[in-house]
Amino acid sequence: MTTDKKPSTLKLNPGAAKKSKADPFAPRRAPVRPPGPARAKSVSASAPKPPREPSPGYGAQRSSPQGERTERPRYGSDRPGSDRPAGPRSTGDRPRSGPAAAPRGDERGWSERPVPRRADPRDAPHGAGDRPQRGLSAAPRPVQPHRPDLARVGNVRGEVRLNKRMADLGLCSRREADEWIARGWVLVNGEPAVMGMPVAPDANVEVLPQARHQQAGQVTILLHKPMGYVSGQPEDGHEAAATLIGAPSQWRGDARHPADGRRFAPEHTRGLAPCGRLDIDSVGLLVLTQDGRIARQLIGENSGIEKEYLVRVHYAPNGPHGAGVVTQDVQAVFPADKLALLRHGLSLDEQPLKPAQVDWMNPEQLRFILKEGKKRQIRRMCEQVGLHVVGLKRIRIGNVVLGNLPVGQWRYLGAGEGF
User: Fold this and answer.
1) How many Cβ atoms sit within 10 Å of the Cβ of residue 412?
2) Which end of the chain is least crowded, N or C, by CB within 10 Å?
3) What are phi and psi of 115, to 5 degrees?
4) How far is it, in rounded angstroms, from Cα 389 to Cα 312?
């Protein structure tokens, strides 16, 4: 039997031919699990936990599931070459727990204390046996008694430092002594000296010719300081007096007949130290030297060199700008008892002054001879007795006088001169 109807074809997946390409940026879907038996739910963190068994008390034995106590092998017992036996070490007859153990907690009385455990050298780490135990302090040092009779270097023989001994002997200054010692120019008992060494009073101190030759080349300069210059370092815009030392300002009389044939050289201006100060508004004789012996002689602690000054004064009982200032014939109105105070009885900086010679040179001028030199001493002394200083000039230091040396000029200290 024939029919005109075409046979139909069964299509299992009609859209398979039209399936588009997968999008790489599309989100992935979780796979669908087939149905199966129900899974057990996990226990949440908020669920109640089973009760823990109480831990054993301190010192109680911890047992294994089989009821026997176990211990870990000690460190290093299982290593090759170790001489330590493996397994638990012996604890002796002392029980760790039980009725024979020491009472603990509330069972122990206040007077009972546990027996300290004996230290076992095997418990210490490797190399700890050679280290000292911490917490052990050395025996306290005995307190040394105070000895005021000892010298500063700590001896009972009266030893002092070498530089001080050389300065006391008049060989040089301390600074020069340190320089000579550093160069090896000083011998103590025939041996080279060491910086800062103490020497006994009977020690033999020798100075080599090199030091003597250097000292012979040092100069001492006498300067007639003008007003407006400071004695030491420059200050407040004022120049130092040492800047006046040079060939143009050398006194002509000294240049024609120099001391010991000495001619001016630039090295003569190096290391010049002023021996005693003169104020900015004072003039007169100022000594500058490279020789430490002269500096110590003039300004040392035990110096007794006289210094002579000419001082012009006004009598101002109410101050220099007050009423009753007398500028002429001051000697006639100045009380005699106050002149006696100038000679002896005044104090500066809470220290009494040494006796001084004070006399009238003329009705307006005094002459002072002092053996000390405190800062602005004469001006401060005059203020205490109602005098106002209007001029001050130093004319002599020891045996050396200013003479006819012009203001602002200088000369060398002669070979036959001495303070």
Assistant:
1) 21
2) N
3) -75, 125
4) 6
| Closest C-alpha among 124, 144, 126, 142 to residue 134 | 124
pLDDT tens digits for range 67-102: 455 555 555 555 555 555 555 555 555 555 555 554
Strand partners, 160: 199
Q: List pLDDT tens digits, range 50-68.
A: 666 665 555 555 554 454 5
Domain boundaries in the chain? 160-216, 220-302+404-412, 307-397
Task: Please give the angle made by the CA atoms of 157, 162 and 167, to the nearest 5 degrees.
Answer: 110
CA dist 176 and 212 (Å) reads 11
Query: 148 falls in which pLDDT band (50, 70, 90)?
Result: very low
- Phi, psi angle pair for 264, to nearest 5°: -65, 140
Question: Which residues lie closer than 8 Å to 407 by C-beta, 6 or more apart?
Answer: 224, 226, 283
DSSP strands (E only) in 139-282: 160-161, 186-188, 191-192, 198-199, 205-207, 220-225, 273-274
Q: Which of the following CATH numbers is that of domain 160-216: 3.10.290.10, 4.10.400.10, 3.40.50.2000, 3.40.50.880?
A: 3.10.290.10
Fold (CATH) for 307-397: Alpha-Beta Plaits (3.30.70)
Report the pLDDT averaged over residues 297-306: 82
Q: How many CB atoms lie within 10 A of CB 157?
A: 12
Q: For the structural domain made of 220-302+404-412, what CATH number should be given?
A: 3.30.70.580
Across the range 127-152, mean pLDDT stands at 51
Residues 6+ apart with CB under 8 A from 25: none
Q: Which residues are catalytic?
A: 279
Across the chain, how many H-helices and E-strands are there?
8, 16
Give start and end residues of each alpha helix (H) in 25-158.
none
The two structure tokens encoding residue 125: 């780490």
